Amino acid sequence: MATFEELVAEGAAVPVDGWDFSWFEGRATEQRPSWGYSGLIAERMASVESALDIQTGGGEVLNTVERLPVRTAATEGWPPSLAVARRLLEPRGVEVVQAGNLDPLPFEDSSFELVVSRHPAEIRWDEIARVLRPGGVYLSQQVGAGSMHEVSEAMMGPLEIDNSRDPRLAAEQAAEAGLRLVRLVPESLRAEFYDIAAVVHFLRKVVWIVPGFTVDGYLPQLRALHERIESEGPFVAHTKRFLIEVAKP
Question: Could you say which of 1.25.40.10, 3.40.140.10, 3.90.1570.10, 3.40.50.150 is the CATH number of the domain covering 4-247?
Answer without folding.
Answer: 3.40.50.150
